[in-house]
Amino acid sequence: QVQVVESGGGLVQAGGSLRLSCTASGLKIGDFAVGWFRQAPGKEREGVSCIAWSDDNPYYANSVKGRFTISRDNAKNTLYLQMNGLKPEDTAMYYCAAGADFSGRCEPLLFGYWGQGTQVTVAS
Question: Distance from the CA of 82 to the CA of which of 11, 20, 27, 50 falls in 20 to 30 A?
Answer without folding.
Answer: 27
